[in-house]
Each structure stands twice: as C-alpha cells, then as structure tokens.
Specification:
Rossmann fold; binds magnesium ion; single chain; alpha/beta; nine-stranded mixed beta sheet
C-alpha cells in the first residue's frame, strides 16, 4: 500500500468495440504501443464494454487488461478473486470472479422483448433468434468469437426494423416493464436500468476503497452514445473518431471538456494516451 502522498495515478476505463478495438476487424494492434507503456507504468486498464463476460475474459487472456471489468453495457461488474480486493456491494461468486449484478437476467430481458414485439408490431431480431453463423455474419466476428458474443447474461442486442412510431411503442413498453435500451455501434441494446456510468462509478469506488492514499485520476475512452455515461463519470473524458472520421454528438457540458482523440478507434486511443502522457497532463 502507498503511504506517502503521491502524484496522480491513472486509472483507465475503456470501451472496446470501435474504441480500443477496430470497428470492423476487432483488432487491438493500433493501440499496442500505448498499452505497453501503460503496463510499464503499472496503470490499470479496465474494460467497460457492451461485450459479454465470455468475450471480455477472452480479451483478458490475450492482452494485459485489468481483472476488473464491466460487461453488457454496465449490467455487471466482475472482480477477479486473485486481486484480493474488498468491496461493499452485494455480489455472487462465478468461476474466479465476484459478480456485482446491476442489470436484469437474460431470461427476463428476452421474455419482455417478445411481449414488446407483439405490442409494437415491428420486425425485431435479437441474438436469441439468430444462429452463431448469423451473429458472425452480422457482426463480422469469426465463429468462435460469435459463440462468445452469444453467451449473454444480462442484455440483448436487437436489430429493429419498423417505423418511428413502432420504435417509440417498443421503447415505451420496455420502460413500463422496468427495462431500458440504448444505441450501440451496431445494435439497439435492451438491458436493465443500468449503464456504463454506474458501473464505472462502482469500479472507481473500488479503487478508492482499496488504495485510499492514491489520488486516482480517471480517464474514460469511448466512441458511441452508449459511452456518454462513462465519459460523464471520469475526470478526463476521451472520445475517439468513428470509422467515417466523425465524432459522436455529446451533451453540451460533456462536449466542453471532452478530448477528441486524433484518429479512428484504436489509433485515436493510442494517440490520445501517448499525447496525454507526453504532455505530462496525467502523471
Ligand atoms: Mg463502442
């Protein structure tokens, strides 16, 4: 444990798809330079993603990311046992993790979507309706990755084909049922009343509780509307460019303090982190 007053220590919270990973290829390669530097500096990189636990665990095995992460758009926070951290929230044990569930069960989500579909009359297809092959085709993931993406616990990505009126009816039904929805990079995600901001706050509190004398400076990186609550929760919000080189529109307050990373997805991620470290802004 640190006992002396320290300069700021970085804590990085990041989206994956379209941010740390390339939107089309899901490659992390363009961010490797800064990731290696962060590893040398012992800076935790925490994933806060719409991806499933199975997908994120796979990422943890192939790159140096923290054993703490949030899955399915903030539906749950996972804390690896071997980190030996204490936390105050109610949790359950699953494999080598403690799980703090913030969202609703997948069975409840699927059941509500089925009812909402009848209510609004639109053509709605979720991962539960698709084969692994179809998920692979639509997402551009390979078969093994699509299989991990289908291992859902708390949320459902759907493709919505319908009118604006039907969409409003669909969303109203979800709201009445105690669920929420948000737009991701490719899908409309149906989930419990949770978001990346709440999950990020729990993770930040976890670091504050376990390392009380460390003045954490939090950096959040994202690319889409579902990252706005995450960006609003951190000290230094960073937005990377989308594949067409544009940036997601942000609320005015956030827009005035966000750093727009030069570069699309992982290239922007890399550039932003390197620039911040070089400027000494964060150390
Ligand atoms: Mg994204």
């Amino acid at each position: 444990m640190y006992s002396m007053p320290l300069q700021h220590k970085l804590l990085i919270l990041t989206d994956l798809d379209g941010t740390l990973l390339d939107y089309f290829t899901y490659s992390i390669n363009q961010a490797l330079e800064s990731l290696e530097l962060l590893q040398e500096l012992d800076v935790p990189v925490v994933v806060v993603s719409s991806k499933t636990r199975a997908e994120i665990e796979y990422m943890l095995n192939i790159s140096n990311l923290s054993g703490i992460f949030a899955s399915e758009n903030g539906s749950a926070v996972f804390i690896a046992h071997d980190l030996g951290l204490k936390f105050i929230q109610t949790s359950y044990v699953s494999g080598s993790f403690s799980v703090i569930q913030l969202g609703q069960s997948y069975a409840r989500i699927i059941d509500t979507i089925r009812q909402a579909k009848v209510y609004c009359g639109a053509d709605i297809r979720g991962f539960a309706d698709m084969s692994i092959k179809e998920v692979a085709r639509i997402t551009g993931l390979d078969i093994e990755a699509a299989e991990r993406a289908k291992q859902r616990e708390f949320s459902e990505p759907v493709i919505f084909n319908g009118s604006r009126e039907q969409l409003i009816k669909f969303q109203d039904f979800l709201k009445e049922s105690g669920l929420s929805w948000l737009m991701g990079g490719r899908f409309l995600h149906v989930l419990g009343q949770c978001d990346k901001g709440l999950a990020a706050q729990i993770i930040i509190n976890l670091f504050t509780l376990n390392f009380p004398s460390t003045p954490w400076k939090t950096v959040g990186l994202g690319d889409g509307p579902n990252d706005i609550p995450l960006l609003q929760t951190v000290d230094v919000p960073v937005l990377v460019a989308r594949p067409d080189n544009s940036y997601t529109e942000l609320p005015t307050e956030l827009n005035s303090r966000v750093i727009k990373a030069p570069g699309i997805g992982p290239e922007g991620w890399n550039n932003a982190i390197l620039q911040l470290l070089r400027k000494g802004v964060l150390l």
